[in-house]
Amino acid sequence: MMDNSLLTMNKEYIIPLLRRIHKNQEIIAPVKEKEDVLFSVIKSMDEITLDYKNAVLSPKGFFFPQQEVIFKYKEVSGDYELSFTITDKKRLIFGIRSCDLKALSFLDAVYLGRYKDPYYQKKREDTTLINLVCVSPDTNCFCVYANSGPMAEEGFDLQFVPLSNRFTIHVGSKKGQDIVEKYHYLFQEGTQKDLDEEYEVVHETKTKFLRYGEFATITQKLIQEEVEESLWKMLGDRCQNCGGCAYVCPTCSCFNVIDRPTTEREGVRIRTWDSCTLFGFTHLAEGLNPRKEKKDRIKRRFYHKLDCYMGRWGTCGCVGCGRCVTACLGGIDMSHVIHQIRMEEYGEYISAKDSEDYRYKG
Amino acid sequence: MENIYLPKTAKIIGIKDEGLDLKTFTFSFINSEVKEAFSYKPGQFLELSIFGVGEVPISLSSSQIEKGSFQLTIYAIGEVTRSLHKMKVGDVVGIRGPFGNGFPFDEAKGKDILFVGGGIGMAPLRPLIKDMIDNRSDFGHIIILHGARTPRYIIFRDELKEWGKVEGVEVHMTVNRVDGEKWDGEIGLITRLFDKIEINPRNSVAFVCGPLFMIHIVVEDYLLKMGFQEEAIISTLERHMKCGVGHCGHCNVGPKYICIDGPVFTYREMKILPKEF
Lengths: 362, 277
Ligand SMILES: Cc1cc2nc3c(=O)[nH]c(=O)nc-3n(C[C@H](O)[C@H](O)[C@H](O)COP(=O)(O)OP(=O)(O)OC[C@H]3O[C@@H](n4cnc5c(N)ncnc54)[C@H](O)[C@@H]3O)c2cc1C
Ligand code: SF4
Ligand code: SF4
Ligand code: SF4
Known about the structure:
The structure holds 2 protein chains of 2 kinds.
Chain A (H helix, E strand, L loop, with lengths): L2 E8 L3 H9 L3 E8 L2 E6 L25 E10 L2 E5 L7 E6 L1 H14 L6 H8 L1 E6 L25 E5 L3 E6 L2 H9 L5 E2 L2 H15 L9 H8 L5 H10 L5 H5 L6 E7 L4 E8 L20 H20 L9 H5 L6 H10 L19
Parallel strand pairs in A: 2-6, 6-7, 7-8
Antiparallel strand pairs in A: 1-9, 1-10, 2-3, 4-5, 4-12, 8-9, 11-12
Chain B lengths: L7 E12 L2 E8 L2 H6 L7 E6 L3 E6 L9 E7 L3 H7 L6 E8 L12 E7 L3 H13 L7 E7 L8 H9 L3 E7 L10 E2 L16 E6 L2 H15 L6 E4 L15 E2 L2 E2 H4 L2 E3 H5 L6
Parallel strand pairs in B: 7-8, 7-11, 8-9, 9-10, 11-12
Antiparallel strand pairs in B: 1-2, 1-6, 2-5, 3-4, 3-6, 12-15, 13-14
The structure holds flavin-adenine dinucleotide and iron/sulfur cluster (3 copies).
């Protein structure tokens, strides 16, 4: 953290702040479209809504688009000319939630590991992130269990916590500090009173989570292979092979690569989101497939999110955003599966919605 | 910023038939700087692009022959590999890499070496065998076992013969069945060749490449029972792969990515991965 001191801002100043930033930078913010809220590139300030739980889709697509051109190829006199574009545009995402913010650090671990993904890297470097802490979580959220929210520990440039009539603001980076310095007249020094109120607000928020998601013991069970095969079979039977869980998941980073010729001599190579619940994901030539059965693929999904992440990066790979809970047709999302494993009674499927056991108890 | 997704173009400068649907292609990079900078070690792989068709991971099957050229031995089995088989000398492909860890070499010095190569599994072993034979005095006795489906699938036929003539190198071959071809050698699975060899497992390293079921049988029913240490059994794993650099997620098994943590693993490392085959 650049600066440990606390700042505050009158709630009414948020739009003036964004309007000033917008003069020379693209802004991506939550926008209401009919009943849904989605992150969009805004044209004017009145499109922005502050009245939302979380956006239907995470801002993942602004860094890792659902479909992206890797390069164009063109045959030219016995050789190929390859060209690619890396977007060069400074932008700011306002209103990202803490869970989605943490999810970006997981994408970083994958795309900015030993080999750097140049398309992702540039977008990431060019983006300023301001997260808005939730005070009223959605019914499907369970970030408290995933240590990703409601407040973020790191990863933000600025973090805004809404109190009664003002925000408390934490500065997380040089980029954030620059904004504060440039528009210093909109910010105020915070006091112990602000910090106390922030603590109260965040604490109260934590009691509002309805969904269960205790990760540590579940992950241990997976690592120790204590989960019975019959559970994976049951989950596999319910999986519809739609891939939706991976598409909506802010931490899912898998992709497929496809060549699309436009003529005989030229075309594009693109990548598209992929999902490990789909049959083709591990298909090998000659008809071999190590994960032929749905039960193997669903098992894989949870092993990747929990066991692999723990083994490789020492963290669980779910941030508790709850989107798979909304998306999954089979009712076998992260929260349900954790609950199910904990129940240890694999014979009977317990509906998560019926269970009282979900309320966060601190 | 270097774009790791951008292939470098290379020309096919030679094609050799190795058997049914099996060819060794020799490539040379078109750009001279790329040629100059290219180096790799046995056990690593490249991503081979046929523009408009796709990209596939293929092991380097040559040891460094001359600057900027290299060989890939490829089985025509699906879209990309079949289109490659239709190409001629002079045609252009895209190459990224080399990727992956490669085989241990210095660690095997002073030891006896056992190679077990089933079918196309000989491809990644070939450069290692060549390098070891070129540095013959650094290694003990070398045994090479090769198993093929039928006699016409025997790969690197001439070289196997040559290697067998080198002092202290033995070569044994077998085929699963004979399909009308002339063959007076062994018939049966590769494991029957174990009756013919003598090796001290305490001071040896075994390199085993081939179909996964073969690896399992060779390792579990033979090498371990003979007394090979788990760290002295070295193999390569194959998975559907789309990027080669740990991003696309397809080759991730347990906590490992075959592309960046492998494709070469000791049996000790392989053993703890989820049993998915
Ligand atoms: C590290 C490594 C080294 C390899 N070395 C060799 C070699 O030296 N010689 C050789 O002939 N083959 C090798 N293979 C296998 C080779 O990659 C596949 O045969 C090839 O990908 C099949 O592609 P296709 O388009 O012809 O087949 P299709 O069935 O049309 O495949 C479509 C796509 O699926 C994926 N795919 C299918 N099968 C495989 C597979 N077995 N491994 C990885 N991805 C796959 C590829 O992305 C491919 O583009 C190797 C594989 C790996 C992972
Ligand atoms: S697994 Fe589900 S709850 Fe967890 S981060 Fe992904 S979409 Fe959100
Ligand atoms: S392996 Fe599956 S769960 Fe893991 S990131 Fe890829 S699609 Fe998501
Ligand atoms: S969203 Fe549910 S039904 Fe669809 S692939 Fe994922 S687990 Fe299966």
